[in-house]
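Researcher: Before we compare anything, I want clean individual predictions. No alignment, no superposition, just each chain on its own. First chain goes here; please echo the sequence and then give the structure tokens.
Model: Echoing the first chain and its structure:
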Amino acid sequence: MKAVIFAGGMGTRLSEETDARPKPMVKIGDYPIIWHIMKLYDHFGIDDFIICCGYKGEMVKSYFATYCQRYSDVTFDFRNNENEIVIHKDSAERWRVTLINTGANTQTGGRLAQIKDYVGKDDFCLTYGDGVADIDIHALIKFHKEHDRIATVTAVQPLGRFGALDIEESAVKRFIEKPSGDGNWINGGFFVLKPSVFDYIPSPSDNVKWEEEPMRALTEAGQLQAFKHKGFWQPMDTLREKNYLEALIQKREAPWMLWNEEQKQGALKVVS
């Protein structure tokens, strides 16, 4: 199965970082957030990626073009005009990455429409390039197949934006830094889709938002199923959220890093 990742938005609410780079290339820890998303899929055996590039897409392409050299020992031999490159101790992931230029101003529905020919005839995963979760991808795919709908969306309940005060009479009994939200389920990304989903994207598609007309049409047709994820989920829309994710990594409490035993154990201690 392949995983498609939206990586073309401008990330205007994170302009401190995205003036210089596309949002999926903003680092949390030592790696761009898109790497963390790909590592999650890889943890569940999905290593074939299609990345929908747009704003500053050349930076995404450059990152993966030099990926092996970036994380391995390398010899560059310029003698005799041969320009030979030898990779030593190759520690790069065994990924297949297809990068598609879907346009700087194209909306998400248009980006998805443009990669139709690269997906093939099998079901595929889709998510955004700016959010992480400790989601069980195997369970998500199993759920999708059992319900046999065209589309499955991961539904999440985000934490409240502001800290909450637990008050009895006028005395503050407790401060809750990350309170529960209003209980509503929202689109958390991490979709699983059948190829027939492309029939629900109107043409011309450049100005079509995947989250609007296509998802509404799928809903009206009874073809959109929700996989409820009650674990960790966090987008990176603002500098505050970027710093929050960064702090979790630094404290070795990053729940989404299921491939990293040290981070996973730290996250489990926090939950308990």
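Researcher: Okay. Second chain, same rules.
Model: Second chain and its structure:
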Amino acid sequence: MPRFSANLSILFTELPFMDRFAAAKKAGFDAVECWFPYEHGVQEVTRLLPELDLQMVGINSAPGGAQEWGLAALPGRQDDFIASVDQALEAARSFGGCAVHVMGGSAGAIPRTQAWQTYLGNLERAVRRAEGSGVQLLIEPLNSRDRPGYILNTVDRAAEVIERTGLSSLKMMFDCYHVQVEEGDLVTRLRRHWDKIGHIQIASTPDRSEPGLGEIHYPFVFEEIDRLGWKGWVGAEYRPSRATDQTLAWLPAAASRSR
């Protein structure tokens, strides 16, 4: 069975953010991740992690303005993008070297070719910025139903990016929810892109709910992740259908503690 991390930006939201760390530990998680720790205080999170014996495994670069959902693909925002990368790298190092998801951005009315070239150029800048830091940069396809206009939607396209000269150090965030909504054929895509995956996340389709409450048969997915030899964490990034601690029957550690 894989090791699971709790995404504290979407789990335990019945609690204030800083209280979610202890709740995750109590529920059976030994690792956490979150979207944007900056607003909560990087120093405070850094202090809390060793106190609770928790590992931070991933954060996102800042999302930019309302509805931008990242800056990498937005022409004219290169300086803001680099500032967001530097901010994320500093936080990641403070947390012990966790991965950073470089947010691509919603291109909207920007001509697609222009947005794509901006995206690739900014990713090259981000890679150079991260050299020698020990921080793994990730790119993540987001489904076009939830994030219309987002620059990156499919795992095949993400793989093409990673195969480009100068971008081979990037890895893919393989979010099972986004992949299933956008493309389907989840396990086949997992196998196809295995060597390019840097982190895995889970939620059920169609409603982004907890495993066991949707159309994805996660026991089979977890078995396949084990069979393929995954050594990293698998992030629980779902919207709980009720209080988070009541939605953890799928988590082996939580199940054993409830007996």
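Researcher: What stands out in the second chain?
Model: Strands lie at 3-7, 31-33, 55-60, 99-101, 137-139, 171-175, 197-202, 233-236. Additionally, The longest helix spans residues 112-130.
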